[in-house]
Amino acid sequence: MRVALVHDYIKEYGGAERVLETLCEMFPDAPIYTAFRVAGSTADKVFRGKKIIESWLAPILKIDSFYSPLRFLTPLVWGSMNLSEYGLVISSSSWFITRGFKVGKKTKVVCYCHTPPRWLYGYETSVGFTRYWPVKIYSAVVGHFMRMYDFSSAQKIDIWIANSENVAVRIKKFYRKEARVIYPPVEVEKIAKVTSGLKKKNYFLLVSRLVGAKGIETVIALSKVLGFKLKIVGEAAGFSSVEELKSSAGENVEFLGRVSDGELYRLYGCAKGFITLAKDEDFGMTPVEAQAAGTPVIAFNGGGFKESIVDGVTGVLVNSTDEKTISAAIKRFEKIKWDKSKIQKNAKKFSKEIFVKDVGRLIEKIV
């Protein structure tokens, strides 16, 4: 059986791209169909050895950030792709919809959904593009037709996989479809091995693409007020530059940019705690990676964090992000005697091995 993979676009490397990378390992001969790829980008370097087929609109979409204002062209992007020669198509779907391509009568289509497009359904997005009224009008008009396309293309999916219970609820709400929850693949065993024997240091760690809706600015402001040391790992993707964030940060904040996986794992292992305050994360792989290193987490009690963090056992969940609440959370965090083995045991529920096994079994059933 011929297999094809479909992914939003090849640009930044984040959680969705880690899922795609694992799917590529499972189906090494499968080509990747995508809206566009940006040569030399972090994601492009990871998938450089793969056969990647871009849409005919790629030359326009990849210019600067044209893919965002030209999102109304999404139906043309995917509609122009003919995948009827494949017996199985696996779509890695997020904000660019990634559905609506042509398939054969016997083609089975599986959609691994990171989330229905946040910008279409009123969720906070990584870039606040509706801050200006002309854009709001544009978004309202385009959004109406895009929601119709999003719903109609969703009805053609044979099997839905959600990356969390949180996202499964959204799929049911917006598409009226049931989804099987298979959590994203985390390198639990590898992280545990690399971080074994490391000594804790006096800093909190935050790992994220530097975009909005991740609570990054909130954590930076709290670090400045409450005086805790903070290391931030991640490439600039939504802010005009890292300098935009640095200007609001105090001397306790260190920006490390993108680092290798090995260095990232060591940062997880040496951190006294991991902190993330995104208020409605789809799932969130980085808190699980921190737990794989035996590092407890302070996180907002919402979204996917509620599924991966056990309050008082693997971390501290907070219901607000104001100074008083986070100050109390840090004091509570400092008083708890954390059990590294329990933290790592919880992380194993989200391992790469479980992802591969569950996806493999599901595909065996439908083909």
From TrEMBL:
Gene Ontology molecular function: any one: glycosyltransferase activity
Q: What Pfam families does the record point to?
A: Glyco_transf_4 (PF13439), Glycos_transf_1 (PF00534)
Tell me which residues make up the Glycosyltransferase subfamily 4-like N-terminal domain: 13-189
Give yes or no: UniProt keyword Transferase: yes
Q: Which UniProt keywords apply?
A: Transferase
Q: Which InterPro entries match?
A: Glyco_trans_1, Glyco_trans_4-like_N, Glycosyltransferase_grp1
Domain called Glycosyl transferase family: residue spans: 197-349
Question: Which PANTHER family does this UniProt record tie to the protein?
Answer: SULFOQUINOVOSYL TRANSFERASE SQD2
Name by which UniProt lists this protein: Glycosyl transferase group 1
> From which organism does this entry originate?
Candidatus Woesebacteria bacterium GW2011_GWA1_39_21
